[in-house]
Specification:
single chain, 140 residues, Collagenase (Catalytic Domain), 5 helices, MetalPrtase_cat_dom_sf_prd, metalloendopeptidase activity, metal-binding, nuclease
Length: 140
């Protein structure tokens, strides 16, 4: 977990490691290197424009850095400003919304997409599943 000009959210690092490990195990990935960088709207907008040719705000961007067939190696950028705004829009606690975005981002690293309504539904179902099962998050 890293900060790029923002205060880190009050989310337990063990929870983040545990949920990442659980998702990766569920999709049969035994090894992974994932860096989560919490940042600003400005930074993510710049990344979105530079790498996706889209000038827009977004809550997260996930970059796969690994070669095909290798262990997951990725960077996740999360705009805490977008998370805060979305938590208000969706009437969710900030921490819960931040956890949802972390889960969403990990799913992107695994190849899930949200470009179609069907894909969005599938990702939301997975996010809900992992959010509702965090009591038993394996933190090893």
């Amino acid at each position: 977990m890293e900060s790029d000009g923002v205060d880190l959210p009050n989310i337990d690092g063990d929870w983040i490691s545990g949920i990442c490990n659980n998702i990766l195990k569920d999709f049969e990935h035994s090894k992974a290197a994932v860096t989560i960088i919490f940042s600003t709207d400005l930074k993510l907008r710049k990344l979105k424009k530079e790498y996706f040719s889209m000038d827009m705000l977004t809550d997260t961007i996930s970059f796969n850095l690994e070669e095909k067939g290798e262990a997951i190696d990725g960077e996740i950028y999360i705009s805490l400003e977008r998370v805060a705004e979305n938590s208000k829009i969706f009437e969710q606690d900030f921490d819960k919304e931040c956890k949802r975005v972390i889960i969403h981002s990990i799913l992107h690293l695994l190849g899930f997409d949200d470009q179609t309504s069907e894909d969005k539904i599938k990702m939301t179902q997975l996010e809900d599943y992992y959010l509702s099962n965090t009591i038993g998050v394996d933190q090893t």
